[in-house]
């Protein structure tokens, strides 16, 4: 028997999810994520984000990608969680802690009246590994910098991000055996010491307009390589807009960007 599921579609720089507030994780959530995220036969999104009660923080979030797999962390998604709970009166706090599969994350909300449209996130410490070469059978060797921001990334520095065949090379790198479990693949062009251009192929979702954790990973890799400076704001330009990322000398990362409500709806699943 089908059931009606209420959701709010929200996006951060075009990285869109269907947000569902619930007391517990619904049955069949993986299939629900696949059906509801379908851009032709569903509501259309990069996945579902559940907002749940937490015993460790103000709220808990769980991420289910468009293919039904569970994600660990989403920088654009967690900003929208902050907006959701504030705008709907679930909290009056402008500083929150959100429990995620990658650990707790602190948010700072900057309200205008009754809504919060700009949110900062303490993304934790970025772990930047040494550059490695990954051989992609149909595309040849690719040099990338592995970075963990609670979830795995492979950052590839390129001379021109616009010319990267993202659907082919991004998919091949994301699904490479070199990264068991898959990896988010970022292709980054250094425009200046304070500005990066990034495009992304996300594991579980494919090409997306933005990836908050990917922007943080890219900035951390750029600082490690001396392309950007620690302790200063870095503008990361994505297909869906721009985020501001600051990487401290100890590797801690803070990201600031918009959170937008698109519409509310109901779908039978």
Write up this protein.
The protein has 269 residues and is of the alpha+beta class. β16 (233-238) and β17 form a beta hairpin. The mean pLDDT is 96. It contains 4 helices and 19 strands. It has helices at residues 29-37, 75-87, 166-174, 212-224, and strands spanning 4-12, 15-21, 47-52, 59-65, 70-71, 95-99, 105-112, 115-125, 127-128, 132-136, 140-148, 152-157, 184-192, 195-202, 206-208, 233-238, 241-247, 252-258, 260-268. It has a 19-stranded mixed beta sheet that branches.
Largest sheet: 19 strands, mixed
* Rounded Rg: 18 Å
Poorly predicted tracts of residues: none
Global outline: globular
Note the total helix count. Answer: 4
Write the H/E string, N to C: EEHEEEHEEEEEEEHEEEHEEEE
Q: How many β-strand runs? A: 19
Structural class: alpha+beta
Characteristics:
single chain; 269 residues; alpha+beta; 19-stranded mixed β-sheet; 4 helices; 19 strands; 47% strand
């Amino acid at each position: 028997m089908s059931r009606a599921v209420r959701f709010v579609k929200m996006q951060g720089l075009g990285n869109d999810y269907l947000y569902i507030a619930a007391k517990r994780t619904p049955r069949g959530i993986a299939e629900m994520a696949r059906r509801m995220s379908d851009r032709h036969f569903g509501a259309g999104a990069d996945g579902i984000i559940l907002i749940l009660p937490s015993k460790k923080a103000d709220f808990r979030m769980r991420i289910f990608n468009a293919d039904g797999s569970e994600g660990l962390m989403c920088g654009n998604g967690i900003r929208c969680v902050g907006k959701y709970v504030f705008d709907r009166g679930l909290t009056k706090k402008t500083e929150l802690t959100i429990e995620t599969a990658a650990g707790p994350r602190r948010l700072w909300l900057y309200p205008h009246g009754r809504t919060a449209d700009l949110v900062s996130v303490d993304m934790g410490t970025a772990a930047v590994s040494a550059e490695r070469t990954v051989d992609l059978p149909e595309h040849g060797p690719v040099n990338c910098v592995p970075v963990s921001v609670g979830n795995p990334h492979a950052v590839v520095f390129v001379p021109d991000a616009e010319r990267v065949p993202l659907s082919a090379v991004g998919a091949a790198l994301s699904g490479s055996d070199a990264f068991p479990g898959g990896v988010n693949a970022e292709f980054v062009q250094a425009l200046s010491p304070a500005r990066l251009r990034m495009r992304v192929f996300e594991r579980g979702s494919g090409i997306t307009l933005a990836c908050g954790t990917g922007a943080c990973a890219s900035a951390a890799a750029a600082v490690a390589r001396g392309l950007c400076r620690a302790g200063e704001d870095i503008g990361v330009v994505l297909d869906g807009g721009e985020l501001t990322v600051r990487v401290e000398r100890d590797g801690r990362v803070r990201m600031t960007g918009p959170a937008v409500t698109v519409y509310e709806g109901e779908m039978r699943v």
